[in-house]
Amino acid sequence: MEVSDIIKPENQVFCKTQLLTDTTLSYCPGCGHGTAHSITMEVIEEMGIVQDTIGVAPVGCSVLAYDFMNIDMTQAAHGRAPAVATAISRVWPNKYVFTYQGDGDLAAIGTAETIHACNRGENIVIIFVNNGIYGMTGGQMAPTTLEGMMSSTSPYGRDVKTMGMPIKMTELVANLPGVYYATRQAVHTHKHVRKAKKAIKKAFENTRLNNGISFIEIVSNCNSGWKMTPNESNIWMEENMFPYFPLGDIKVNGKLK
């Protein structure tokens, strides 16, 4: 075979975890949700906990996560995923229970459920995708929208005098005693994907040890909502999102970094 033949699509082998279905992802091209889905399922498969894992999908861009994740899933009302996960975990304490939520869901309508589940130290994993905007419903301003950032409901940019500062959920919940592990990661490069996957694996291992809440924030882009190409949105994310939402561990083994 010639070298030129190797790169032909028909000669390439694309490997994906068996826990991702063959359903076409509904996410916009370039969105980080697909990668976050993939590494979460890879961790579950590699840990051998497929039959013991239950995911909770709320409302937002991830509302159809059960179509893509080939594991036991249930749906929650908007913002209520931590409450549903709490019930499942208490009924089946030996299960690995996780939520998969966006910033509009977790940090807005679901603030109460998030805070109180974290404060109680429920033995669940929360995966929180933060793209600084309401992606599914038209690009409205979210609690995580940056100062000066334009959205459909802040067309002149977020004015912190009237709209408040963007909320840093991971720092907020890290200060609660029930949170055992809190970290912020990204998935836009190979290096960041590896770190994010390692963090998700650590979170599920914490569940195995009954350590309480593990809170994994993934800062992602929203090229559609931000009105950019995927590459432009990744650059904008690095230059604007990361300075305000710095990546890395915030709380490990119950201790703030």
Radius of gyration: 18 Å
Low-confidence stretches: 1-7
CATH architecture: 3-Layer(aba) Sandwich
Specify the CATH homologous superfamily. Answer: Thiamin diphosphate (ThDP)-binding fold, Pyr/PP domains
What is the number of independent domains?
1
Largest sheet at a glance? Answer: 8 strands, mixed
Task: Output mean pLDDT.
Answer: 92
Percent helix range: 25-40%
Number of strands: 8
Percent strand equals 15-25%
| Ends apart, CA distance between termini | 53 Å
In the sheet with the most strands, the strands line up as 2-1-3-4-6-5-7-8
How many helices does DSSP assign?
Answer: 10
- Secondary-structure-derived class: alpha/beta
CATH class descriptor name = Alpha Beta
Oligomeric nature of the chains? single chain
Shape: globular
Sketch the topology as an H/E string, one letter per element: HHEHEHEHHEHHEHEHEE
The CATH topology: Rossmann fold
Keywords: Oxidoreductase
Domain Thiamine pyrophosphate enzyme TPP-binding: 66-217
Protein name: 2-oxoglutarate ferredoxin oxidoreductase subunit beta
GO biological process, one term: cellular respiration
